[in-house]
Amino acid sequence: MTQIRLTNSKTRTKEDFAPIDPGNVRMYVCGPTVYDRAHLGNARPVVVFDVLYRLLRHAYGPEAVTYVRNFTDVDDRINETAQKRKAAGAAGTLEELIAERSGETIRWYHEDMDALGALRPSSEPRATGYIAQMIAMIEGLIAAGHAYAAEGHVLFAVESYAAYGALSGRSVEDMIAGARVEVAPYKRNPMDFVLWKPSDDSLPGWDSPWGRGRPGWHIECSAMAHDLLGDSFDIHGGGNDLMFPHHENEIAQSRCAHPQAEFARVWLHNEMLQVEGKKMSKSLGNFFTVRDLLEQGVPGEVIRFVFLGTHYRKPMDWTAKKAEEAEAALRSWRRLLADAEPMGADERVVAAVADDLNTAQALTLLHGMAKEIAANPQKDCFYEKGVMLGSARLLGLLTPELAGWEVTGVADLSPLEAALAAARDEAMVSKDFARVDAMKSALVAAGVEVRMSKAGVELIPGPGFDAAKLEGIG
Ligand SMILES: Nc1ncnc2c1ncn2[C@@H]1O[C@H](COP(=O)(O)OP(=O)(O)OP(=O)(O)O)[C@@H](O)[C@H]1O
Ligand SMILES: [Zn+2]
C-alpha cells in the first residue's frame, strides 16, 4: 500500500502516516465562519484537504475515511447583518434572520466549492447544533480545575495546562509579552480565553449554568470533533493563520477534557494565499471572492489547477499568467483524453501526492505523460491515456463534474482541421504554400494553437480563443 508521509506541525517533521484505525481514518478541518462569501484564500484549504481526502480514500478505500468540516454559525458578523436587515424592516425574528444569513452563506459556500471540484466532506456540522455538547465539555473543564466562571463568562485557565503553547512553540510569558490581548478584569491570566460569554437580549443566546449566553469559537471545534470523531483521531487541518490561538486553544481544551486521549495526532497547516506579500483577508480588504473569478469566466477547474501548482506549505499568489497556463494545459489535456476511459493512477503520481501532497510534482508528471501521448499519435495510446486520466482524477482534475467549460463557446474545429490538412496536401503538390500560411495566421489570430505533423493537423483553442474570428477561414 501507498505509504503516505505528512509534515506534522506538532513535531515539525515529515512523518510516516499510520492511522489509529485503517478501517476508519478520521480527519477534522476547520471550516468557514458563515457570515459572507468565501474569498479565494478561504478556498485554498478546501482544495488542499480535498486532495488529502482523495488520497486517503485511494489508500484506505472510500468507505474507510471520515472527513468532518464544520460551519461556524455563531458569530457577531452574522448577527450584525441580521440586525441591519431587521432595522431595515425585514420580516422575521432576529433568530430567523440570523438563520437566514447563515443559510444563504452555506448555500453560496457549497456552490462555490462544488465549482472547484471539492468533494463534500462526510459530515458538515453546524456549531449551533452542538451547544449541549459544548456546555457539557465546559462543565467537565470547570470540574477538573481547568476553567472558571466569572461575571457570566467561563474562561480556560492556561496555567492549568503545562503544554499550552507547544504547537506554535511559544511560552505563555512570550505570548503575554507579544500579544495585544484584551485584559478583562475577570481574567486570572491575560492569556485565559473565553469558553462561554453572556448574550444580551439583542444577541442570540442559549441557557446554560452560567446564564444565557453563547460559546467562544475555540470550544466549538473541540466539541464537534469529539462528538463526531471521538477522543483521538488522525488528522486535524486548517490554515496556518489558525495555529495560534485557535488550534492551541482547541488542543488545551480537548486534552484537558479527555486527558487519557491524544486529540489529533497529526496537525496539517496550509500556507496563505497572498496579495503582494500579505495574507488575503477580509479584514485587510485585499480580497476577491471565488464567485468573482467564476463570474469573470475563470473555470473552477482552472482555479483548482492553479492551487495545485504550489506546495500547500508555501505561500502563493494568484496571477492571470498562472490562470492562463492552467487553462491552456487543461484544454489540451481534456482534448487529448476525450476518448479515454479512466484507469488506475500512475504509481509515480500517487507517490508524489503521498509525499506530503507534492501536487506540483504530480502536475509535472502529468505534463510529461501528455507530451508522450501527443508525440505518439500513430501508436494506440489507449492504456497511457487511461492511466493519465486516472492520475489526473486523483487530484480532482479532468472529472466529469468539472467538464464542459472547455467547449462552451468553442466551435467544433474538426472541419477546419480537415480543411487545413487538405490545403497542405494540395500545397505539397503545387509547392505553393500561400493559402496554408494564410489559414495558419488567421487561426493564430483567433487564439488557436496550430499543430501540424505527418500524422495530421491538430487545432487547440488557447486562452485568448475567439470563435467569432474563425469566420471566413478555410
Ligand atoms: N489568505 C488565505 N490563504 C489560505 N487560507 C486562508 C486564507 N485566509 C483564510 N484562510 C483559511 O480559510 C479557512 C476559513 O477561515 P475563516 O472563515 O475563519 O476565514 P475568514 O474569517 O473569512 O477570513 P479572514 O482570515 O479573511 O478574516 C481557515 O482554514 C483559514 O485558515
Ligand atoms: Zn477549528
Automatic annotation (TrEMBL):
CDD domains: CysRS_core. It catalyses: tRNA(Cys) + L-cysteine + ATP = L-cysteinyl-tRNA(Cys) + AMP + diphosphate. A motif ('HIGH' region) lies at residues 32-42. It comes from the Bacteria. Coiled coil: none annotated. A motif ('KMSKS' region) lies at residues 279-283. The keyword Phosphoprotein does not apply. Keywords: Aminoacyl-tRNA synthetase, ATP-binding, Cytoplasm, Ligase, Metal-binding, Nucleotide-binding, Protein biosynthesis, Zinc. PANTHER family: CYSTEINE--TRNA LIGASE, CYTOPLASMIC, CYSTEINYL-TRNA SYNTHETASE. HAMAP family: Cys_tRNA_synth. This is Cysteine--tRNA ligase.
